[in-house]
Specification:
The structure is a single chain. The chain has 19 helices and ten strands. By secondary structure, it is of the alpha/beta class. The strands form two sheets. Strands 6-7-8-3-9-10 form a six-stranded mixed sheet, sandwiched between helices. It has a four-stranded antiparallel sheet with strand order 2-1-4-5, covered by helices on one side. Strand 7, helix 16 and strand 8 form a beta-alpha-beta unit.
């Protein structure tokens, strides 16, 4: 019960902060409607006694009371729905905003790659929807609690022994709570399975993957795999639901036995002349109401208990995010780069991993120079970029920018001074202005800044073809213009170049989705941008690529293998050394020659 009270207290405080008028109006109407229900039973008992005693005036009065009470019960409940539904909408919007902030609020992202974190977020998305329903359920539960208390008072006026009916009503509540804990534990245990099912459904229906599925004829494979997961999920949930149903049924049986006993007891009192016929009708009506109240209360309490578990997860994520943020380090990032970026004995291990992904990295990225990072898949290139961008924190060693240890700098301040285009860049399906402009929020409304970034990325032709800066990109939620992979990448590059004074500009596989002509245009744009970055702030430009023909443009080539720097130098120097880079370059040259 403490968990339910904790959840309701938190959500009611949130509702009061969001819109106290709606909360007060909805709660007040529900409370009056709930109290009107026992009044109907009282008026029916009085009506029966009045008819039995042949008192027409009293019968009329009790009939009016019954009609008014019944009208209030039906009318107020409907009007209350309007208020608490609107309040539920506001709560849902607020919780979703909070969830977005929390998921993106951590200064580091290393734990975000942990599958357990993905499972938590998947559960939290469901929890937010559940908590929206709990605002409504909580108000109804409070009204039922008042209704039960009023009903117990009415029963006690007839005979204190009838209080047992209300007291025993707690038994189904306690067993129902136990039953909900069983279901909740099973849902949490099956979270990876539900995430896999949703992923398969998205994969099988996503236009991006649908073409390959059609060509390969692999739809039956995805259906069969999903069926296996659904069978496993259904089997586990059925076992949990059987236990749930057994516990709930046990509570209801106990209450039913006491209900029958209460009716027989008041019947005995009537035979002794200690109660009237109207009292028998009243007890039967109230006992029936208590049964309905307990059934409704049990369902609502189940909703609240499920939400309580979700709210605990939500608040725990908030606490962790707050702890990770901590006090902002006081040191500032240099305004310009004179020496460059130095990595000293840098190492990194992913959370839960047994071995280091990067180890013993000693590297100097000179100011105003372009650097190419090469290596085979799994060499650690993407991890190194994440460390340089401040997305991950080194597990050992340090990173210096002009002699300033970045560990003593607020990661958000450092990230304000970097710009990056990832290989798996985001396709932001908004207007061109917004899709590009969010690369630098202070200039998101600036037509001039966006146009400049588009020009620097050589994407002006794309913007003109789709209809200008206000044209919608993509078709996810509107009648927009879809783009090819290379065109999306151009828009992504323009978004990256919204930041005009980056101390580090990183491009991760910038030519991966481009044909030869588009690649050459990108290379030309890259060279121009690299010169501007070098001249304005002495920034370092870094790009990762498997196409070694592009590497020749770099001032410095860094070769990674198994998480270590095995070679570094200019293209000509490394080719002359005949080491790992020379092997990779010769292999690609032979492939192109063939």
């Amino acid at each position: 019960m403490s968990e339910a009270l904790f959840c309701l207290r938190h959500l009611f405080v949130l509702g009061w902060r969001l819109d106290r008028r709606r909360l007060a109006a909805g709660a007040g109407m529900l409370m009056l409607a709930a109290l009107a229900t026992p009044v109907v039973a009282v008026s029916l008992g009085g009506l029966v006694d009045a008819v039995a005693a042949d008192r027409p005036e009293a019968a009329v009065r009790w009939s009016v009371v019954a009609a008014v009470a019944l009208g209030l019960e039906l009318t107020l409940d409907n009007f209350a729905h309007i208020y608490y539904f609107e309040l539920s909408e506001l709560t849902d919007e607020q919780l979703n905003r909070d969830l977005i902030r929390l998921v993106n609020g951590s200064v580091r992202m290393d734990h975000r790659v942990d599958p357990a974190f993905a499972d938590r977020i998947d559960l939290l998305r469901q929890d937010v929807l559940q908590m929206r329903m709990t605002v409504q359920s909580g108000l109804q539960l409070a009204a039922i609690a008042a209704q039960v208390a009023f009903t117990a008072l009415l029963l006690a006026t007839l005979s204190p022994a009838l209080l047992s009916l209300s007291l025993v009503a707690i038994v189904p509540v306690l067993l129902g709570r136990w039953a909900e804990q069983v279901l909740q534990a099973t849902r949490e245990r099956l979270s990876p399975t539900t995430r896999s099912i949703r992923h398969l459904r998205l994969l099988a229906t996503n236009p991006a993957s649908h073409k390959e599925i059609q060509i390969a004829g692999s739809a039956p494979y995805f259906v069969a795999r999903q069926d296996r997961l659904l069978d496993a999920y259904g089997s586990a949930m059925r076992r949990a639901q059987v236990r749930h149903a057994a516990l709930v049924a046990a509570g209801q049986v106990v209450f039913a036995l006491v209900y029958v006993g209460s009716v027989l007891w008041v019947y005995t009192l009537a035979r002794r002349g200690e109660a009237s016929i109207g009292d028998v009708v009243l007890v039967v009506s109230l006992a029936t109401q208590v049964g309905a109240q307990m059934a409704s209360g049990l369902d609502l309490l189940g909703v609240v208990h499920r939400s309580a578990a979700g709210l605990r997860r939500f608040l725990e994520l908030r606490r962790q995010t707050s702890e990770e943020a901590g006090p902002a380090p006081a040191r500032l990032v240099p305004d310009t780069v004179g020496d460059g970026i130095r990595l000293e004995s840098l190492g990194f291990t992913y959370p839960g991993a047994a071995t280091e992904t990067l180890r013993g990295i000693d590297l100097h990225l000179p100011a105003g120079r372009s650097v190419a990072l090469v290596g085979e898949n799994g060499a650690g290139k993407s991890t190194l970029i994440a460390l340089l961008l401040g997305l991950y924190a080194p597990t050992r060693g340090r990173m210096l920018v002009d002699g300033v240890d970045v560990a003593g700098v607020d990661p958000r301040r450092w990230r304000d001074r970097v710009a990056v285009l990832f290989q798996d860049f985001a396709k932001v399906e908004l207007s061109v202005q917004d899709s590009v402009g969010i690369g630098h929020l202070p200039d998101v409304e600036s037509r001039e800044a966006v146009r400049t970034a588009v020009d620097r990325a050589d994407a002006s032709g794309i913007v003109d073809r789709v209809g200008g800066p206000e044209a919608l990109l993509g078709t996810a939620y509107g009648d927009g213009q879809d783009l090819s992979g290379g065109q999306w990448q151009r828009i992504g590059l323009a978004r990256t170049l919204m930041r005009t004074r980056p101390m580090l500009l990183a491009l991760d596989e910038p030519a991966a989705a481009l044909d030869a002509e588009a690649e050459q245009r990108l290379v030309d744009a890259y060279q121009e941008v690299a010169k501007q970055v070098a001249l304005t702030v002495g920034g370092v430009t870094l790009f990762v690529t498997h196409r070694l023909s592009t590497v020749r443009l770099a001032d410095l080539v860094v070769v990674l293998k198994d998480g270590r720097v095995v070679e570094q130098g200019s293209h000509d120097t490394l080719v002359a050394q005949g080491g790992r880079y020379a092997e990779l370059y010769a292999s690609q040259a032979r492939a192109y020659a063939r």
